[in-house]
Amino acid sequence: MRTRIFASLAAILLAALISGCEKPAPPTLNDQATMIALNIVSNSLIAPTTAKFSAVSCVERADHTFLISGQVDSQNAFGAMLRKEFGCVLTNLGNDKLDWLGVSVGGDATINRNLIPQDAKLLDSRIVVFTDQTSLQKQQYKHVEGRIQNVSKHTLTFISITYNLFETDGTLNGTSHAYSSYEKIPPNGIWNFTTDAFDIGLTPKFVDMTSSP
After folding, report:
1. What does the alpha-carbon distance between residue 25 and residue 148 come to, in Å, rounded to a whole number?
2. CA-based angle 19:31:71, to the nearest 5?
3. Which residues touch 106 (CB under 8 Å, ≥6 apart)?
4. Residue 75 CA: distances (Å) to CA of 43, 44, 78, 125, 200
5. Least confident residue range of 11-20, 40-49, 163-172
6. CA-CA distance, 143 to 158, in Å (whole number)?
7. What's the whole-model pTM score?
8. How many CB atoms lie within 10 A of CB 167?
9. pLDDT of the residue at 100
10. Confidence class of residue 121 from pLDDT cuts 50, 70 and 90?
11. What architecture is domain 131-212?
């Protein structure tokens, strides 16, 4: 009986030793994206070491970007703990190498200008990957067309985009607009916009963009 007990204990000990030698599974790409994002968010805080994260989620999207969002509690300049919502967008540069496109913490947003063109815009402190171009229309008129992406947690019910129109000598000669009045843009959603048509001799320059959550 004693021999059987010792044999059982030896088997348990051997199994424990074997399992202890197994290497932990490497982090997934989602895990890596989350760790990078949390580090970026922490470094943006006044007191990074006090950061406590909650409700963190990571979504990999069809365009090979990752949206990491959640809440973070940290101390402000007076030592009081405050909670802020955050969102961070990372992209896969290839070979599973990740880098950040933008981060928003408590409404304060920053864009990685090394990866996003200089004409990328911030929409009401939300990170928006913004691209536009001027297209011809009926040989006499042209308009601006482009796209923006909502990476906040809230559905946008209205977006207004305004361009000033200039003569060749720099004189302001009106404005051109695009509205999403009848189109809701959900979180992660993309809105393809087209402005009002204007004379082919005018040059558009982006001036303003507003939204309503």
Report:
1. 38
2. 125
3. 84, 85, 86
4. 13, 12, 7, 22, 54
5. 11-20
6. 20
7. 0.53
8. 12
9. 86
10. low
11. Sandwich (2.60)
Helix segments in the chain, DSSP class H: 2-21, 29-43
* Model pLDDT for residues 8-37, shown as the tens digit of each residue: 545 555 555 555 556 677 889 999 999 999
Q: Residue 83's beta-bridge partner residues?
A: 73
Nearest to 63 by CA among 186, 149, 131, 184: 149
DSSP label of 25? P
Alpha-carbon dihedral angle through residues 178, 181, 183, 186, given to the nearest 10 degrees: 90
Residue 167's alpha-carbon distances to 5, 139, 177, 195, in angstroms, are 94, 18, 17, 18
What CATH architecture is 29-116?
Roll (3.10)
- Which part of the chain has CATH 2.60.40? 131-212
Judged by DSSP in three states, 20 sits in helix
Assess contact for 85 and 153: CB atoms under 8 A. yes
Q: Which of 138, 145, 130, 212 is nearest to 178 (CA)?
A: 145
**Alpha carbon distance 14, 211 (integer Å):** 63
Separation CA 77–CA 6 (nearest Å): 61
Q: 46: Cβ–Cβ under 8 A, 6 or more apart, which residues?
A: 74, 75, 76, 77
